[in-house]
Design goal:
This protein has 185 residues and is an alpha+beta fold. The chain has one domain: Aminopeptidase (3-Layer(aba) Sandwich), CATH 3.40.630. Strands 1-2-3-4-5-6-8-7 form an eight-stranded mixed sheet, sandwiched between helices. It is globular and about 40 Å long.
Length: 185
């Protein structure tokens, strides 16, 4: 199911268009959103590649396993952002809940789409989905300290730091934090 892009990339305003000799017609969004329901092998490979390039997983990680777990749980959704030009996957977010708290995972945006607001837009959509389920809190696990500020600016606070143990296998990072935000109901 394709969802028309209620999120849009920054638009050029009418005055700038007029000065440049362009029409006042609004530009089409550079992407569209899709709720993933039955991923193809191509989708799974593209999602895995995006997660790897975004630093969320290591090489050879089985994205299909996590996608299947989410989609088969009855408590989760995977939202994709695809380029309007060629339907390439340029963003992902996985949203689900454990009955008490919402959780988001795999928020990833392709390098050439970063800085457009797509990541914060995907997160806002996931939060809306979770709030509509009746959840009051959303949580996210963050392994990359450089991402903390992104979530802080969007209202998240660190509630726990978890040191990794030698028994945990991870290709990325050592410690991680859990961040939380109260959702609007």
């Amino acid at each position: 199911m394709k969802m028309p892009g209620s999120l849009t990339l920054p638009q050029t305003d009418a005055a700038t268009n007029k000065a440049a000799g362009k029409s006042d017609r609004k530009e089409e969004p550079g992407f569209f959103l899709e709720r993933l329901q039955s991923p193809t092998a191509h989708d799974i490979a593209a999602i895995g590649d995006l997660w790897y390039k975004s630093g969320l997983t290591g090489p050879g990680y089985d994205a299909g396993r996590d996608l299947a777990t989410c989609l088969n749980s009855g408590r989760g959704s995977v939202i994709l952002a695809r380029s309007a030009k060629d339907a390439t996957i340029i963003g992902t977010i996985m949203a689900g809940h454990d009955g008490e708290s919402g959780w988001v995972h795999y928020l990833a945006v392709a390098n050439d789409a970063r800085g457009t607001g797509l990541g914060s837009g995907l997160l806002a959509l996931a939060e809306d989905i979770l709030a509509a389920t009746g959840l009051a809190v959303n949580k996210v696990t963050v392994t990359d300290p450089t991402v903390h500020d992104f979530y802080r600016k969007l209202g998240y606070e660190i509630v726990e730091t978890v040191p990794r143990t030698n028994t945990q296998i991870s290709e990325i990072g050592t410690d991680f934090v859990v961040m939380r935000k109260r959702l609007k109901s």
